[in-house]
Amino acid sequence: MGRIVAVEYLTLDGIFEEPGWSGPYFGDELGAFQAANLDEADALLLGRVTYEGFSRAWPQMEAETGAFGVKMNAMPKWVATSTPDELEWNASALRGDVVEAVRALKADQATGSLLINGSADLVNALSAAALIDEYRFMVYPVVVGRGKRLWADGAAPLSLELVSSEVTSTGVPILRYRPAA
């Protein structure tokens, strides 16, 4: 059975979108953390908005990001979308009921480990269905006051168990959680 890991940038007030606020705190430690997340993944699992942003940016970033960019561009991507457009960038659409599509994908031994970045609506749906095996949060020491939260009002309750924690030299805690039994 495949494993699903969600990796998210968060502010202290729970905002995750447009992480321009992360720049001053991003260094070698977070770079190594992100590289390890990508290295262990067999494919990306993305919402449509995150896919669109990534597919525009990453093909142009391969030269400057080296092996990370090569893997990011080459690995398979599964995209939760209801738009009939053709997908590019080595991506396949998950159509219909996204929870059932991901459940089937996760049950397929050949799929392996799936990495989610961003994609709050997808994370919310998969969290509610108990399909995410691990959450990894980088919590930036900033409050931005507005923006999209990872879990919106009305999100399904979720209890998590801390697996590990570390704090980077720039003050960003990296917190790993799994769903509580």
- End-to-end Cα distance: 18 Å
The tally of beta strands, per DSSP, is 8
> Mind telling me which CATH architecture this is?
3-Layer(aba) Sandwich
The tally of domains stands at 1
In percent terms, what proportion of residues is strand? 25-35%
Order of helices and strands: EHEHEEHEHEEE
> Which shape, going by the Cα principal axes?
globular
Quickly give the structural class. Answer: alpha/beta
Kindly report the name of the CATH homologous superfamily: Dihydrofolate Reductase, subunit A
Biggest sheet: strands, sense, closure? 8 strands, mixed
Polypeptide structure, described:
With 181 residues, the chain is α/β, with parallel strands linked by helices. It has a single domain, classed as Dihydrofolate Reductase, subunit A, CATH 3.40.430.10. The chain contains four helices and eight strands; from the N terminus they run E-H-E-H-E-E-H-E-H-E-E-E. It has helices spanning 28-40, 48-74, 98-107, 120-128, and strands at 3-11, 43-47, 77-80, 91-94, 113-117, 134-140, 160-167, 173-179. An eight-stranded mixed β-sheet has the order 4-3-2-5-1-6-8-7. The model has no long low-confidence stretch (mean pLDDT 93).
Keywords:
Dihydrofolate Reductase, subunit A, 8 strands, single chain, alpha/beta, globular, eight-stranded mixed sheet, 181 residues, 33% helix
Please outline what is shown here:
It contains four helices and eight strands. By secondary structure, it is α/β, with parallel strands linked by helices. It has an eight-stranded mixed sheet.
